[in-house]
């Protein structure tokens, strides 16, 4: 049987949208997928020439993306000078939203109201009220909606969960996860998206979704977890004085009856290369290597003392065979829409609400200029 083809509309032509679009063109067979495939039906930008340039860039990208170009995945891609035209195009099944954080809610809302399924980049929105409005619209219109937390769908993510949830390492005692990236803040312009409050700047929203992934996969989805609403029990922020956004955010989350996780994101230092996340268990430790958003190796280590059943280090490698790795989440979207599902069991909306709630708590409890931000819900 021929694979199901999902037709994408891409809005925004920036870096993350480029990476996603290139991954749509990678041969599904390279990741052992034969039931779904992807085509780009429309691209929306500020002008038609900008959208045309984006499509031309994809056509000439080469490498792993050359397969999709040769297979015709761009043949019917229409360039538009507005997002609304993408939302109105009957050839578009689903819209990928790769705009800056504060625009996620209005863009996703407009797409849903136009009757399109939506995959929206992380962080999903600026506050929980915005997310709840999107969820309500999607449910009312029976449309698929998902946050683009691509790391959840990587082979290594499933492998880590299987390792921990099997019980081989014993009870989980604690999870620590960090994504830090030295961002040279003083060299950036005031309107740079990393530090501009109007663009949702700061480490919390830019980096925070990635360490949160591993806390959610390991603890929230643990078979022994009974706490659907884990609580932020402490948090702190350090503020970048020039723009008033957070340059560092850290918080601890407790799952009652299970364990705690300490999460850190920082624009002023680098993540340790060999231990971006550590799952400490009774019998040993599972250590995930950097980059935390796209790791390919984890190690199982004995405890520093002789306590525990793990006595030798083992290394586990899960490379992404082609492309950057965003095609895995695209495959999930295709299967859900093909099968008539309005949300992903792997990335359910309830779990997006949990993490968005953490961000709201840390932001509101800090001293950044975004502390009292109120989103666009209802507007």
TrEMBL record:
<keyword id="KW-0560">Oxidoreductase</keyword>
<dbReference type="GO" id="GO:0000166">
    <property type="term" value="F:nucleotide binding"/>
</dbReference>
<dbReference type="GO" id="GO:0047837">
    <property type="term" value="F:D-xylose 1-dehydrogenase (NADP+) activity"/>
</dbReference>
<dbReference type="InterPro" id="IPR050984">
    <property type="entry name" value="Gfo/Idh/MocA_domain"/>
</dbReference>
<dbReference type="Pfam" id="PF01408">
    <property type="entry name" value="GFO_IDH_MocA"/>
</dbReference>
<dbReference type="InterPro" id="IPR036291">
    <property type="entry name" value="NAD(P)-bd_dom_sf"/>
</dbReference>
<feature type="domain" description="GFO/IDH/MocA-like oxidoreductase">
    <location>
        <begin position="160"/>
        <end position="286"/>
    </location>
</feature>
<dbReference type="InterPro" id="IPR000683">
    <property type="entry name" value="Gfo/Idh/MocA-like_OxRdtase_N"/>
</dbReference>
<dbReference type="InterPro" id="IPR055170">
    <property type="entry name" value="GFO_IDH_MocA-like_dom"/>
</dbReference>
<feature type="domain" description="Gfo/Idh/MocA-like oxidoreductase N-terminal">
    <location>
        <begin position="6"/>
        <end position="146"/>
    </location>
</feature>
<protein>
    <recommendedName>
        <fullName>D-xylose 1-dehydrogenase (NADP(+), D-xylono-1,5-lactone-forming)</fullName>
        <ecNumber>1.1.1.179</ecNumber>
    </recommendedName>
</protein>
<dbReference type="Pfam" id="PF22725">
    <property type="entry name" value="GFO_IDH_MocA_C3"/>
</dbReference>
<comment type="similarity">
    <text>Belongs to the Gfo/Idh/MocA family.</text>
</comment>
């Amino acid at each position: 049987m021929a694979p199901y083809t999902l037709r994408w509309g891409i809005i925004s032509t920036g870096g993350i949208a480029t990476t996603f679009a290139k991954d749509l063109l990678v041969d599904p067979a390279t990741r052992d997928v034969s039931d779904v495939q992807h085509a780009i039906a429309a691209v929306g930008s500020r002008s038609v020439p900008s959208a045309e340039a984006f499509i031309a860039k994809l056509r000439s990208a080469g490498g792993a993306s050359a397969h999709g170009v040769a297979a015709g995945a761009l043949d019917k891609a229409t360039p538009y000078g507005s997002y609304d035209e993408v939302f109105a195009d009957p050839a578009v099944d689903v819209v990928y939203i790769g705009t800056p954080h504060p625009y996620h809610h209005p863009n996703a809302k407009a797409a849903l109201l136009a009757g399109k399924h939506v995959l929206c980049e992380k962080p999903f929105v600026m506050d929980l009220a915005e997310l709840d409005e999107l969820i309500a619209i999607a449910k009312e219109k029976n449309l698929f909606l998902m946050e683009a937390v691509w790391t959840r769908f990587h082979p290594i993510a499933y492998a880590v969960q299987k390792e921990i949830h099997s019980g081989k390492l014993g009870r989980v005692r604690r999870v620590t996860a960090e994504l830090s990236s030295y961002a040279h803040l003083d060299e950036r312009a005031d309107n740079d998206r990393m530090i501009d409050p109007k663009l949702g700047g700061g480490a919390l929203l830019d980096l925070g979704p990635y360490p949160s992934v591993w806390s959610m996969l390991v603890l929230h989805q643990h078979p022994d977890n009974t706490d659907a609403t884990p609580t932020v029990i402490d948090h702190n922020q350090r503020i970048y004085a020039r723009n008033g956004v957070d340059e560092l955010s850290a918080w601890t989350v407790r799952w009652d009856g299970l364990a705690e996780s300490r999460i850190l994101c920082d624009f002023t230092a680098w993540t340790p290369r060999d231990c971006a996340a550590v799952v400490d268990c009774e019998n040993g430790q599972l250590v995930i290597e950097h980059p935390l958003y796209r790791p390919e190796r984890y190690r199982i280590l004995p405890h520093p003392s002789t306590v525990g059943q793990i006595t030798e280090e083992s290394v586990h490698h899960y490379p992404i065979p082609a492309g950057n790795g965003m095609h895995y989440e695209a495959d999930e979207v295709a299967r859900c829409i093909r099968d008539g599902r309005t949300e992903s069991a792997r990335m359910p909306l309830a779990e997006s609400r949990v993490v968005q709630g953490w961000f709201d708590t840390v932001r509101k409890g800090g001293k950044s200029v975004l502390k009292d931000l109120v989103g666009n819900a209802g507007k």
